[in-house]
Amino acid sequence: MTKTPIQSSDAPSAIGPYSQAIQCADTLYLSGQIPLDPESGELVDGHFETRVCRVFDNLQAVCRAAGGDLNHIVKLNVFLTDLDRFSQVNDIMAQYFEPPYPARAAVQVSALPKGVDVEMDGVAVIGP
């Protein structure tokens, strides 16, 4: 088994001992992305929608570095500190993805890294 790390300068650098993504054969395992600006490494300011868009943009950048895009994601995990924001995530997600949409889980958690209110990770299949 060959594990290939995927790195994009258009997404934030890892803030711990992990890769932005690992590709194994046609499967891309995306690490969690939070609303960090890739240039500054700082959290983005603004409304919740702005933070969710930044997370999707970060995931997109990593997918592109592997030769794919968001529509290659087959499983998306959404972590929220307030599940009442679920419908807002749905509205924004519909702007970033085309049908058929990925399988998805949305989970309310008590806390996320750097005190953010949203994090997402996923699995993509990027074939030859």
Short structural summary:
This protein is of the alpha+beta class. The protein has two helices and six strands, in the order E-E-E-H-E-H-E-E.
Q: How are the elements arranged and paired?
A:
Elements: E1 4-6, E2 21-24, E3 27-33, H1 48-65, E4 73-80, H2 86-96, E5 103-108, E6 118-125
Parallel strand pairs: 4-5
Antiparallel strand pairs: 1-2, 2-3, 3-6, 4-6
Helix pairs in contact: 1-2
Can you offer a commentary on this structure?
- This protein has 128 residues and is of the alpha+beta class.
- It contains two helices and six strands; from the N terminus they run βββαβαββ.
- The protein has one domain: 60s Ribosomal Protein L30, Chain: A (2-Layer Sandwich).
- The protein is 23% helix and 28% strand.
Structural domains: how many: 1
Uncertain segments are none
Instruction: Supply the CATH class.
Output: Alpha Beta
SSE series:
EEEHEHEE
Largest sheet: 6 strands, mixed
Which second-level CATH architecture applies? 2-Layer Sandwich
Task: Specify the helix fraction band.
Answer: 10-25%
Q: List the strand order in the largest sheet.
A: 1-2-3-6-4-5
Rg over CA atoms: 14 Å
- Count every beta strand, where a strand is a DSSP E run of 2 or more residues: 6
CATH-defined topology: 60s Ribosomal Protein L30, Chain: A
Shape: globular
Mean pLDDT: 96
Distance between the termini: 17 Å
What structural class should be given to the helix and strand makeup? alpha+beta
What is the beta-strand fraction? 25-35%
Considering the protein shown, what is the CATH homologous superfamily? RutC-like
Number of helices: 2
